[in-house]
Amino acid sequence: MIPVSLQTLAEVLSAELIGADCQIVEVTTDTRKVTAGCLFVALKGERFDAHDFAADAVAAGAGALLVSKRLLVDAPQLVVKDTRLALGQLGAWVRQQVPARVVALTGSSGKTSVKEMTAAILRECGEVLYTAGNFNNDIGVPLTLLRLEPQHDFAVIELGANHIGEIAYTTALTRPQTALVNNLAAAHLEGFGSLAGVAQAKGEIFTGLPADGVAIINADNNDWPHWQSMLGGKTVWRFSPQAAEGVDFFADDVRVNGAGTQFTLHSPFGTAQIALPLPGRHNVANALAATALA
């Protein structure tokens, strides 16, 4: 995270600052991950209220608290109406301060593999920040963005969702230059109602793109008319394991053996021989998606 004063964060959040100003170099929502001088964000959920553990965070070394009510704790505090939304604001603010190229991805499956592959490709070109574990929701995405630092050239941000509207929120924080929907599937329909609901939720990732942004779509899942309104006049690249009309990234001469998977990758930028240390034809599609995203 870029070092920032508590006073600056108060201005960013329109928060009330109680106590002395101090320098913040890390943010956490977990008392088990408190480090000396960090900002502890007290989140409140249906079954928990981290305000109850604020004193523990201070005892563990937290330098300041982000809270929704003033606490009787001996530590500087930023008081806001909603700490969950404030966390998102902080992530978005840090994103604006760091000029890294940001790419974002979502999908019904394969997100982790594509994320790892994309980060590996970009690592050949510079410093890369990418989503750790499954930090892909409205809490995890801001925490990932808060890890951005000036030396990062790229950021690979995974966006997940369990309801319509969640990705619209996190992509607005992330503001990617390139965005990918890896695939769509009828699994895990809770919160979406139907495959069309899944398509709507995943397609929200395109609403965060700038006018010159690039949208990447699985050519086997690109027949969702309402995506067109999200895409506007943006550049669209399509990928598929098989060559077909309108497909920009595809593979042929695919070989799967004990050493992994080998194939020839075709793209608008030329061809390349690819050797993945991973078995399975599904990883060909993941590699094509990662190449397009990178």
From TrEMBL:
Broad EC category: ligase
Lineage top rank: taxon: Bacteria
Domain Mur ligase N-terminal catalytic: 24-71
Keywords in alphabetical order: ATP-binding, Cell cycle, Cell division, Cell shape, Cell wall biogenesis/degradation, Cytoplasm, Ligase, Nucleotide-binding, Peptidoglycan synthesis
Statement: the UniProt record of this protein carries the keyword Glycosyltransferase: no
GO molecular function annotations of the record: ATP binding; UDP-N-acetylmuramoyl-tripeptide-D-alanyl-D-alanine ligase activity
Start and end residues of each Mur ligase central domain: 106-294
EC number per UniProt: 6.3.2.10
InterPro entries: Mur-like_cat_sf, Mur_ligase_cen, Mur_ligase_N, MurCDEF_CellWall_CoF430Synth, MurE/MurF_N, UDP-N-AcMur_synth
Gene Ontology process terms (BP): cell division; cell wall organization; peptidoglycan biosynthetic process; regulation of cell shape
Database matches in NCBIfam families: murF, PRK10773.1
PANTHER family: UDP-N-ACETYLMURAMOYL-TRIPEPTIDE--D-ALANYL-D-ALANINE LIGASE
Protein name (record): UDP-N-acetylmuramoyl-tripeptide--D-alanyl-D-alanine ligase
Organism of origin: Serratia marcescens
Gene that specifies this protein: murF
